[in-house]
Amino acid sequence: MYTLEIIPGLYQITVRYTNMFLITERSLTLIDAGFRGSMPYVFETIHKLGREPAEIGLVILTHNHLDHTGGLDELRTLASPRVAAHRADVHIPEDTIPYPGGNYIGKLLKTPVFSRLRRHLVLDGDSIDIKLEGGETFDILGGLQIVPVPGHTPGSISLYFPVHKILVVGDALAKRRNVVFMPRKTVSTDLKEAANSLRKIAGMEVKILLFGHGRPITVDPQGSLKRLAEKLGVVQKE
């Protein structure tokens, strides 16, 4: 586990190579909840900052995968936050889930033998208090905009803080060293749609790029986005 202060009031907490982001204002906001077992590390960070876990008033999920939602049950033992996620990731038929091969796996999870596994893989709509459509704004860290970026999952979102030019992409994009890549096909539902999402965010003004996995990019992140978009042909080279 390690913690990075991105800017005053915004911290990246990394557990098992999965990132969560804590925003410390009058109320605390958590972006993503990590794997099951992650919350003790989040609570430790909160205590070191002189705050209490019960102050978490909002959790925003970038997408409905177990490495980003698994800690919610643990969090709810000490806090009662409202939880926000995109509608497309939680209002899904019982015979599918937002993973590759989701239709096949979803049907399998309906069988008595495997039915209990479903709740460990995905959250259902009853677990979500705020069903996002995209385009919503929150009065957090000078302003927070919800940007739909489907592809990794149908309801993947990025979070943009225009005052600070910070973009949290979740798993809509990946990185190795300081190079940005598309999400892996093996863990994404629609790479064509993911490329269309890249077109949307490649034109945004970004000074700090934060990921669901790995450290931030702070040196020319906007250039990194544009180079990937040009390589894939979703924007024209200048």
Helix and strand arrangement:
Layout (H helix, E strand, L loop, with lengths): L1 E6 L2 E6 L2 E7 L3 E4 L7 H10 L7 E5 L5 H4 L2 H4 L6 E5 H4 L11 H8 L8 H4 L8 E3 L4 E2 L5 E5 L8 E5 L4 E3 L5 E3 L2 E3 L9 H12 L5 E3 L10 H12 L6
Parallel strand pairs: 4-5, 5-6, 6-7, 11-14
Antiparallel strand pairs: 1-2, 2-3, 3-4, 8-9, 9-10, 10-11, 12-13
Helix pairs in contact: 7-8
How does this structure look, described?
The protein has 238 residues and is α/β, with parallel strands linked by helices. It has eight helices and 14 strands.
Largest sheet: 7 strands, mixed
As a percent range, the share of helical residues equals 10-25%
Which structural class matches the secondary elements?
alpha/beta
Shape annotation:
globular
Task: State the CATH architecture.
Answer: 4-Layer Sandwich
Strand order of the largest sheet: 1-2-3-4-5-6-7
Overall pLDDT, averaged? 90
What is the ordering of alpha helices and beta strands? EEEEHEHHEHHHEEEEEEEHEH
Distance between the termini: 41 Å
In CATH's first tier, which class applies? Answer: Alpha Beta
Q: The CATH topology is what? A: Metallo-beta-lactamase, Chain A
Radius of gyration: 17 Å
- Sequence stretches where pLDDT stays below 50 over 5 or more residues: 104-109
Number of self-contained structural domains: 1
CATH homologous superfamily label? Ribonuclease Z/Hydroxyacylglutathione hydrolase-like
Annotation field: number of helices: 8
β-sheet strand percentage: 25-35%
